[in-house]
Amino acid sequence: MSKRLILLGAPGSGKGTWSKIISDEKGLAHIATGDLFRAELTAETPLGREVKSFMEQGALVPDELTIQLVEKALTDESAVNGFVLDGFPRTIPQAEALATMLEKRDKAIDMVINLVIDESILIERTLSRLVCIKCGQPYNTQNMAPSVEGTCDHCGGDVVHRSDDTEETLRKRLEAYRKSTAPLIDYYRARDLLVTFSNDGPPSDEMRRRLFSIIDGAKG
Ligand code: AMP
Predict the structure, then answer these.
(1) To test the ligand 1 pocket, which listed residue (7, 17, 60) has its Cβ within 8 A of the most ligand atoms?
(2) Domains and CATH numbers, the chain
(3) Cα end-to-end span (Å), the chain
């Protein structure tokens, strides 16, 4: 079974939803840099104050801060048996830093799953999405609403609209994706790690089967 996975994709492509499903089913740590930054923001830590304006504007947080955050998460006990990275790396320097971090531990990434989605769906899906502020569980007002409005089915936390899920911020995040993150597709393809997963609909059993057969077919 593959143990160290990256989910790659544009904002709204389903990285959060599928990373949760994979990490739950495979017992892997779910490391989502967006969730980690949001937790720092909510707790009003010095890091939270530093990243606030970048996040609110839909800009990428500088690599140095992001890499430090991931390095800390990877040393956590929960990540020893493997992890799903969600929203990291988002730049080539982040990908290079990740490879170095893992090499130091004699480890490597097993597979990079690139979630592909039609851009017209992407905007609609992002504007209707919700997230639990406590555990990061994603929801969607259209087809994945929590059973009780405003309350997470998993942990009872508050389910809210993300403040950066506005049309204006989303456009900026898409620009950042195209400029800085999309080059990672070729980067990982050249390293023979990339697989593509078409994620145009809400999660279904058929999609789940398709995804797990890809993951289980991986070396590692
Ligand atoms: P996400 O929840 O993954 O959409 O991330 C929300 C925001 O957190 C992004 O728009 C960035 O401002 C910041 N962020 C998350 N991950 C990264 C990363 N790997 N590099 C830089 N900024 C990030």
Answers:
(1) 60
(2) 3-116+180-216 (3.40.50.300)
(3) 6
